Amino acid sequence: MTQRFDLNRAMTHRIAAFLLSYPDTELSAMLPTLRTAAVCLTAPTGTPLVELIDDLRQTPLLAAQQHYVDTFDMRRRCSLYLTYWTTGDTRNRGQAILEVKRLYREAGVIPAEEELPDHLTVVLEFAGTTNQTVGTALLLQHHAGLTLLTSALREQGSRYVLALDAVLATLPEPTETTLRAAAQIATTGPPHETVGITPYRAGADQTGGRR
Question: Which residues contact residue 156 at a Cβ distance below 8 angstroms, ignoring those fewer than 6 apart?
């Protein structure tokens, strides 16, 4: 049975995708429009997004850019690449990324080359504009990683935890299985391989934010 389209969820995912992108002059110019859209959302998603937008509008661009780099480029615990949380930098990650690409192609989307398809902003954009059912299922598949990312951002005192709070508010409460998976990753870290392979990488830094 086809799930009913949820406009509030779609708008939340779309706005969060913009806000979790690298802050530049283009994003700065969009913030008033994004705020106008965010105030129309229900409180659990709209309130944190409005707070984040207001914070970004009040922060000088260079300072916002430095905070973004310090948060997402310098800390693996704040990786925006969803498959990193489940496969780490192992040979399995390449296969996991190909699976995400397959889902996009089946939905009629050709993945862009400038960013890996498992980047949270790409997944949110897909869920918000192309296929809500498949996109939300993909977010749920990585619920444990999203939970850990949210915790890491909160510990760092990063403004970007507000975007993750909004995204998580669009998903069901984490199941016991999800919580156990998150606890295991928190204890042991994502899987890793150091012998016999070169970690799957698309560029100089695969744990960082979207540019």
Answer: 71, 75, 78
Please tell me whether residue 50 adopts helix, strand or coil conformation.
helix
Continuous H helices in the chain: 7-19, 25-38, 43-58, 61-68, 82-87, 91-106, 120-129, 132-141, 143-156, 161-169, 176-188
d(CA 119, CA 196) in angstroms, rounded, equals 26
- Give 147-183 pLDDT, tens digit per residue: 999 999 999 999 999 999 999 999 999 889 998 988 9
pTM for the model: 0.87
- pLDDT at position 60 is 98
Map out the domains of the chain with their CATH numbers. Answer: 7-187 (1.10.3480)
Tokens of 35: 């705020």
Is 7 in contact with 170 (CB distance < 8 Å)? Answer: no
